[in-house]
Amino acid sequence: MTSTQLNLIPTEHLLKENDIFSYRKELLEATGFSTFNVVYDSKINGFNKDAFDASVIGKQNILTLIITSDNHIFGAYHSNIPSLSSFQVVIDSKAFIFALSNGLKTFKNIDSGSFFNGNQPVYEVSCAFKINDPSKQSIICAYANRYYQGLNNSTVFAGNDTFITSQLIGLELH
After folding, report:
1. Which pLDDT score, from 0 to 100, does residue 1 have?
2. Phi/psi class of residue 150: alpha, beta or left (left: φ > 0; alpha: ψ in -120 to 50)?
3. Where do the structural domains in the chain lie, given as residue ranges?
4. Biggest alpha carbon distance in the chain?
5. Residue 21 in contact with residue 10, Cβ under 8 Å?
6. Do 123 and 131 form a contact (C-beta atoms < 8 A)?
7. Considering only CA atoms, which of 41, 60, 93, 97 is closest in space to residue 173?
8. Is 141 in contact with 163 (CB distance < 8 Å)?
9. Positive or negative torsion for Cα 57, 59, 62, 67
10. Which domain of life is it from (predicted)?
11. Can you give the three-state secondary structure of the chain, one letter per residue?
12. pLDDT digits over 35-50, tens only?
């Protein structure tokens, strides 16, 4: 077992703690999976790029959850996160981003861009958002509505284009 696996907390507790338990069924239905394991939690594994990458790179069917300091919840689904050299975008036709404000809303990238690997930030989805640790502001891409089908207003994610991320979670779906 890796150190990441040893630090996992029970899924039920994690979801109840973050008040997203009610969205579990919707998130699994949107992806076509029935269960998941928590592979990364910034509150346990550390809120940094190395810890996040070690937990998700090389895995398939990863769903991320971003929780802001204002309790907005959103994220992304990636069918594959391969190991990449810096500044590469994964093309993933199954990937999507989502918001959990007033029910689940999903948006697909017109160009099928997905996970972006660069030197910073901790986590980035191509033309959607950049997630930094809580000491820095995270951002929603100003032009996200140009790249994601059905996305009219980027404030659906965090209520604003800049925000503080309080927690980042990675789930491996099965």
Report:
1. 38
2. left
3. 3-173
4. 43
5. no
6. yes
7. 60
8. no
9. negative
10. Eukaryota
11. CCHHHHCCCCHHHHHHHCCCHHHHHHHHHHHCCCCEEEEEEHHHHCCCHHHHHHHHCCEEEEEEEEEECCCCEEEEEEEEECCCCCCEEEECCCCEEEECCCCCEEECECCCEEEEECCCCCEEECCCEEECCCCCCEEECCCHHHHECCCCCCHHHHCCCEECEEEEEEEEEC
12. 999 999 999 999 999 9
Contact 165, 138 (CB under 8 A): yes
In order of 11, 17, 87, 110, 167, the CA distances from 45 in angstroms are 15, 17, 24, 33, 11
Closest CA to 170 of 70, 78, 97, 68: 78
Q: For residue 25, what pLDDT band results from cuts at 50, 70 and 90?
A: confident
Please answer whether residues 109 and 96 qualify as being in contact, where contact means their C-beta atoms are separated by less than 8 angstroms.
yes
Task: Identify whether the C-beta of residue 94 lies closer than 8 Å to the C-beta of residue 116.
Answer: no
